[in-house]
Every structure is written in C-alpha cells, then in structure tokens.
Amino acid sequence: MVDDEVRTAAFHIVPMNVDDIERCVELEQLLFPEDDPWHAVAFRSELAGRHNRYITARDEDGRMVGYAGVALLGDAAHPEAEVHTIGVDPNYHRAGIGTLLLEALLAEAGKRGGPVFLEVRTDNAPAIALYAKHGFHIIGLRKNYYHPSGADAYTMRRPELTALPLPDEVLS
Fold first, then answer.
1. Per the confidence metrics, is the pTM higher than 0.85?
2. N or C: which end of the chain has fewer CB within 10 A?
C-alpha cells in the first residue's frame, strides 16, 4: 500500500478510497470518451483487489486532479507489475502530475521487484515519451486494443531495476 503521502510544491499523492470514485468516473469521461471509460463498478472492483494499489494526485485545496493504479502480480520468486491506468485532469496536463503518479506506482512495484508492463495508445505520444523516460520499451503491438474506437496499443515493459554495485571507494 502507498503509505506515505508524497508532496511537491503544489500536489500530493495519497491512496485512493471509495469516496474518490465519483471524481475518477468524471475524469474518465473527459479523458477517454471514445474508448469505453471506466464506470464506478470498475473502480470499486479495482480498489477491492488485494493485489491492486490505486492512488490520487491532489492540488493544494485537496481536489483530486489525477489518479493511477497498478496491479502487483506474480509471486515472491517471480514478481511483476502492470500499470492499469493513469489519468490527469485536462486542466492540469503538463504540470508534472502524470510523472508524480507514475513514479509513485513504480516505487510501489519496486518494493517487490520484477518487470513492469503497461498498454498505451499508439497515438498518445506524450504518454509514450513519459514511459520511455522511465525505462519502458515497446515490446509489442495490440491491434484494435481499445474499444469501441478500435485504436491500437503498444505493450511496453520496464525491466526489473537492480541496484548498481557501489564503487570500491564507497565500500571502504
């Protein structure tokens, strides 16, 4: 679970709760009108999943301006994670909220280790660039992945991050 609140000058990241669902549905309608936006039942189901972690980004007034979720899959010997969603209020695009949300999800996945996967529309250049900046690489194409629009998606993977060996001068 995302235990600690992450703060920046204007935004903070906190765990999502059921009271946030209505706003998530509102944002889904704004962000994904042509691709079957999630309904409240989908968010309730995701929040109830014991392997899922959902978070929200809030502005200085406490208003939710973004949300994101990740599934922590596999087992202790073979962990992996899958980013399920990231959404940011269009009025707050280019404010760094997507980065904050992604970094929080990756930190949560990093506690268990393993690779992280996601799907992204092939025409979503800003998201693809964000993911690439955080170590994701395109590994496949899913034709007609999004419905009902029929848009294609890239499957992207970030390999497991391992600690780099410390230089000898740090070890002595």
1. yes
2. C
Whose tokens are 């189901």? That residue is 45
Per-residue b or e along 139-172, where b marks 16 or more CB atoms closer than 10 Å to that residue's CB: eeeeeebbeeeebebbbbbbeeeeeeeeeeeeee
Which member of 131, 154, 160, 169 is catalytic?
131
Catalytically annotated residue among 119, 154, 160, 169: 119
Task: Give the pLDDT confidence of 126-165 residue by residue, as tens digits.
Answer: 999 999 999 999 999 999 999 899 999 999 999 987 544 4
d(CA 142, CA 81): 19
Active site residue 131: yes
146 catalytically annotated: no
Partnered with residue 121 across adjacent β-strands are: 153
Q: Which two tokens stand for residue 19?
A: 């009271």
Q: Which residues lie closer than 8 Å to 78 by C-beta, 6 or more apart?
A: 114
Tell me the C-alpha distance between 171 and 143, whole Å.
Answer: 50
* SS3 assignment for 49-80: CCCEEEEEEECCCCCEEEEEEEEEEECCCCEE
